[in-house]
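Weekly modeling sync, notes
Attendees: S.R. (lead), two postdocs, one rotation student

Agenda item 3: backlog of single-chain predictions. S.R. asked that every request posted to the team notebook include the full sequence so nobody has to chase files. The rotation student volunteered to paste the first one in as an example of the format we agreed on. Action items at the bottom.

Example entry:
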Amino acid sequence: MNKITVKNIEINVTGIEDDSFVNITDIARIVNPEFPAYVVRNWMRLRATIDFLGIWEKLNNSNFNLTEFDQIRNESGSNAFVMTATK
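Predicted structure, as returned to the notebook:
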């Protein structure tokens, strides 16, 4: 695993085949070092983020469930909408 440093924060970079991926939790530590999950959670509930993820899934996931995604997309952006990660 490689690392890059941004504003004195180390960010993990993982390579899979010819692609590289950065760790968004590490990036969120730049904004909130103690609770980076808050930054990620707020980013995940934005309509623009949901739209981006939907486009990425359409392009890269042949099993993407567009029907379920449309329901999530329609709810995104509202004050009641929360998206959380699961293990």
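Discussion: group reviewed the output briefly. The chain has a mean pLDDT of 88.
Action items: rotation student to repeat for the remaining queue; S.R. to check formatting next week.
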